[in-house]
Design goal:
By secondary structure, this protein is an alpha/beta fold. It has one domain (2-234): TIM Barrel (Alpha-Beta Barrel), CATH 3.20.20. Helices cover 30% and strands 22% of the residues. It is built from eight helices and ten strands. The chain has helices spanning 23-32, 49-59, 84-96, 105-108, 136-145, 162-166, 186-194, 226-234; strands at 2-9, 37-43, 62-70, 76-81, 112-114, 120-123, 149-152, 177-180, 198-201, 218-220. The strands form three sheets. A six-stranded mixed sheet has the order 7-4-3-2-1-10, with helices on both faces. Helix 1 packs across helix 2 (49-59). The longest helix is centred in the middle third of the chain and has 13 residues, at 84-96. It is globular, with a radius of gyration of 16 Å. 47% of the residues are buried. The structure holds zinc ion (2 copies).
């Protein structure tokens, strides 16, 4: 079956994420856009995953729990997990392995932890957009430790993209999928398909209006479960 996706979406927990990126708004818009599956991927934290997952049940949208890890090399890697509980466990480990610098909401924005009914449950005090001590060669292993998969984010972008930071993707990093920006050209996409990667085009939305629409981007799966998505993205 064809599964229409957007597997890289930020909530209001990310300092750069708009305060309108609430659980109900995100799943509601995903349903309107005709998406079958979305993923919550805030910077270095999974604190809003459970809320969006629960809101997704009501809206009829499958929600994968994840996070956008910033590696020690300042490369962005999206990790996806089979459940919010697994993502939160990984989030605890990442929380111990990231630089703790207090957030200044006036400069970076608020970092809102929310309930599945869009109420504010708290605020993350330390800035989430900092590097961790997880190296890029460890990212796939870290995701697998919690039953998940990992892929380098927006590889064609100069800011925190793996190609700009490191030059290339080595086979022994263990990635099976790569994410390219919506603006990347077909030749670039074909190059990564030829190299054997599953190529994802996610929105990396920080604002509601940037989320993917149902489009030519889909995954072919036997059935839509978080485990099947993770399996598809985790194996070459
Ligand atoms: Zn990023
Ligand atoms: Zn992102």
């Amino acid at each position: 079956m064809k599964v229409y996706y957007d597997l890289h979406i930020h909530t209001a927990l990310s300092p750069c994420g708009d305060d309108d990126m609430t659980p109900c708004n995100i799943v509601g818009l995903a349903a309107l856009c005709g998406l079958d599956v979305i993923a919550v991927t805030d910077h270095n934290s999974a604190a809003n995953c459970a809320a969006v997952e629960k809101a997704g049940l009501k809206a009829g949208v499958t929600v994968l729990s994840g996070m956008e890890l910033e590696t020690a090399e300042e490369v962005h890697v999206v990790m996806l997990f089979p459940s919010a509980a697994a993502a939160e466990e990984c989030g605890k480990e990442v929380g111990k392995r990231r630089l703790l610098v207090p957030n200044n909401p006036e400069i970076y924005g608020r970092q809102l932890v929310m309930t599945h009914e869009d109420r504010i449950a708290g605020e993350e005090k330390n800035l989430l957009v900092t590097a961790t001590d997880v190296g890029v060669y460890e990212a796939v292993k870290l995701a697998r430790k919690y039953g998940g998969a990992a892929f380098p984010a927006h590889i064609d972008r100069p800011s925190h993209g793996i190609l700009q930071m490191l030059g290339d993707i080595a086979d022994d990093m263990g990635f099976a999928a790569v994410e390219i920006s919506p603006a990347a050209c077909d030749e670039f996409t074909d190059c990564w398909i030829k190299r054997g990667y599953t190529v994802l085009r996610n929105s990396d939305a920080h604002y509601l209006e940037n989320m993917n629409q149902r489009s030519v981007n889909f995954l072919e799966l036997d059935s839509l479960t978080p485990e099947n998505v993770i399996d598809k993205l985790g194996r070459r």
